[in-house]
Structure formats: structure tokens, C-alpha cells
Amino acid sequence: MNLFSYTSFVFGKDYLKKIDSNTTSTFTIKKDSDGSLKKSTYALHNYAKISLRDVEFSGVYKIPTSVFGKSTEFNNYALGASMFFKELLHIPLALRAGKLNFSGAISKLKTPALSTGVSCFSSCSASATGISSSLPGVGSTAKPWSIAAYYDYANVHGILRNAKATCFYDGKNNFGESLLFIIKPLKKIQISFSETAGLFSIENTSSSSWFSDGGFFPKKQILAANVQTAITSPYYRGRFFTNFYQIENRKMGNTFTLENSIVLPNFKLNVWGFYANSMKIFTTSSTKLKTLWQLKINPIVHFTTPSRTTLIKLGGTFYIDEKMDSHNKNAFTYKWSGGANIKKRAFSSTLTATGAQTYYTISEGISFHAWIQPNILSSYTLYLNDNERTLEKHRIKNSISAQIFSKGNFTLNAKETLELTFKEGAISGTNAFSIYAKQKIKKTNISASVNIKYTF
């Protein structure tokens, strides 16, 4: 069972702008063969954030999943603060300290390969990114302490629309900096450039055969960098970036990623590509890169009926990659999907089919835009044995959600999900129910939810 509560107080343009807080409690009840509850567990997450005009504070306290009656850790916490100088000194500068989160180009250095998802209706990124930082969230208790500085110049007129500079240092001796420039040479064309570089600590202490080829090494620092270029126009959107990783004293390994989107009145073509020129690369997350190359193609056609009352969208995606498996042999993976989406004033419906070497899935979803706004989703999946290509198991999943009550600024939503798995004549599954309430009182938003999950 999961209990969640969220409260937000909005104070407008005064010095005190906003207060956010949420609490999540999780209880899992497990019965042993003798009927006792010795393996039942609990967990707790508390989060609070105070936003002032020039300062922000956030704090997280977490009790990890623990067994009732046994000792646990109560020192999982994260604190953070931001200081803004835009109003005080009229300088677009911010300083942050605490267990910060970093995203943007930092994420690309940690995970350079493309996502393997095969959504039928995707879109490409349209802008280069630098390093982004944020105050601690619910999952930040394991982050190291860090400090960051952020400069953000914005101009709605002229060619140079945005210039950003970021640098940070954390308790693991990681240091990074980034520069981002966005220019608009023509009314409908935008070009962006970014560079990110730094020194990052990595280590490989694994004794598995997979890591043995890369060589055991203790904690050390490597130089890594990311360079991005992106363009946005009415008919084309694209982004290219390359990563640089130090693999030996004077040698660098590279990864290259290209994202393209051609946009026409009733047609869009998305193409993604990835290539790595070395299998000796360890990313900044201390993970050895396994992907050699990837290719993903996603054409989309959309049109309206002659009556102009229905929008129809057809799309499909094909994905293929080559990786090094645990035995240092080349292995190919492919996925595909196809689907149709219909939108009318009263409802929208999507039918999709997805396949890969080991599974096939058909799913259907429908959402109504009036009355209680019900959403219904059903899917059926076949899982195959990878070696023999025979049926291993199949799974059925159904869910329905709706707004069961609404009056004034109060809404109440509920969701029911049933998942059944059939394998070798046995049936197992889960049944989950959740209810979510939201109330707005003047400048205060209050929400709460209860989630109950039963596994059999």
C-alpha cells in the first residue's frame, strides 16, 4: 500500500512565493507459510521546498524499505539551497549548494546511447543542451554534496537569444563546466551550440568476465566532453552531438549521435543514429559502453477527414542495434512498432502493435474527453524463449481510470489495474487500485493519494 500527500501554497509575487511539501509512505504486507508477517516492510519519503524571491531551500528525508521489527538507517537525508542575484544585483546569476541533481549534457555523458523505445509517434530534440542543476528531490539522498554556479542571459530581441554558463564541483571530485548559445538568424530558424567538459571519477572493481576485457582499475579521473549543435526550422529539426572519453593516457574514444526530423504538411520522418568508435570506453557513470551502433526510423502520416471532425495519425518505428554481449561476441537486437491514433472531439483512441526477438504486444487505449473522463487501456503480450523461439508465457493487462467526482475546485480520481501472467499452466498477477484527490483553496493546492497493490 502506498500513501501520498502533496501540499502547495502559492503566494504570488511577494517575497515568499511558494511552499511545497509531500509525504509518501509505503507498506508491504507479506505472509509467510506459517501465516506470520515477518517479511512485511515499510518506507517513508518526506520532501519540502520553500521558494522566496531570492532564495530557495529544499530538504528530503528518507527511510529506506525496512522490515518491521528490525533496525534500519535513519540518516538518509538531502539538503539544498539556491541563491538568485537577478533582483538583488540585476545579474542573471544563481548559486546552488547541497545534494544537487544534474541533467542535460551530463546525462548524455553518462548514457550516450539512444533509447531503445519504439514509440509510434515520437519527436526529436530541437535544441542543444548544457549542464542543468536542480535542488534535491525525493531520490537525491544518495547524491554527493556539490556546489554549482549558473549564469543565464536571455534576450527576446537580436540574434543572440540566450547564453548560459554552468560549472559545478562535487564530493566525488567531479568537476564540469558548460557553455550554451542560442541564436536566431532568421524569424523561423534557430541554431544552438553547446560544449561541456570536465574531470570525472570512475572505477571498475568488477571481477566478472564482461569487465575483465576492459581491465580492472581502481578509482581514477578521466577527461570527458560533449559538443552539440542543433537547428530548428519549419521543415527540418536536427541535433548532432559527439562525446569524448579518455580511454588511455593520450587516447580518446568517441561516440556520435544524430537526430533528424523532416516535417511536411501531412508527413514527418524521424531518424536517429548512434555510433561508437571504441569498445574500451567507460562512461562517466563507470559503465563500460556495450553498444557499437544504433539506427531508429520513425515515419508518421497524419490527416483529417473531409468533414474536419476527425484527425487520423499513422506511424511506425523500426529499431536495430549491435552490441557486445557478456562473451564479447557481437549480438544484434531489433524492435518494431506500428500504430494508429484517432482523435475526435468526444474521444481519442490508439491501437499499437510492438515486437522484438522475445515478445510481441498488442495494445488498445481509449480516452473520453467529457463526463467522468474515463481512460481504458488493454494489452496482450506473448513472450518467447530466445533460443527455441517457443512460447514461454503470455500476459494480459487491463486498466481503467476516471474522474469519479468533481465539484468546484475539488476533484477525485480513481484507477484500477489488473495484470495476469499465464506460464506452464499456472496463473499469477497483480491487482492495483489507487485513488487521488485534489483540492484548491485560493492560493493553496492540496492533493493526496492512496495506492493498494495485491500480488498473487
Please characterize this protein's 3D structure.
The protein is mainly β. 2% of the residues lie in helices and 66% in strands. It has helices at residues 105-110, 209-212; strands at residues 2-10, 16-28, 41-52, 55-67, 76-84, 93-98, 101-104, 131-134, 146-154, 160-170, 175-186, 189-204, 217-232, 236-248, 251-264, 267-276, 291-304, 311-324, 330-343, 347-356, 359-368, 375-384, 391-407, 410-423, 426-441, 444-455. It has a 24-stranded antiparallel beta barrel. Strands 7-8 form a two-stranded antiparallel sheet. It is globular, with a radius of gyration of 25 Å. A hairpin with a 5-residue loop joins β9 (146-154) and β10 (160-170). The model is unreliable at 207-212 (pLDDT under 50). It is built from two helices and 26 strands.
Brief characterization of the structure:
The chain is built from 2 helices and 26 strands. About 1% of the residues have low confidence.
What's the N-to-C terminus distance?
A: 15 Å
- Unreliable runs, pLDDT <50, ≥5 residues? 207-212
Computed structural class: mainly beta
DSSP strand tally: 26
Largest sheet: 24 strands, antiparallel, barrel
H/E series: EEEEEEEHEEEEEHEEEEEEEEEEEEEE
What's the average pLDDT? 88
Shape: globular
Put simply, the count of helices is: 2
Quick tags:
456 residues, mainly beta, 24-stranded antiparallel barrel, two-stranded antiparallel ribbon, 26 strands, 2% helix, 66% strand, globular
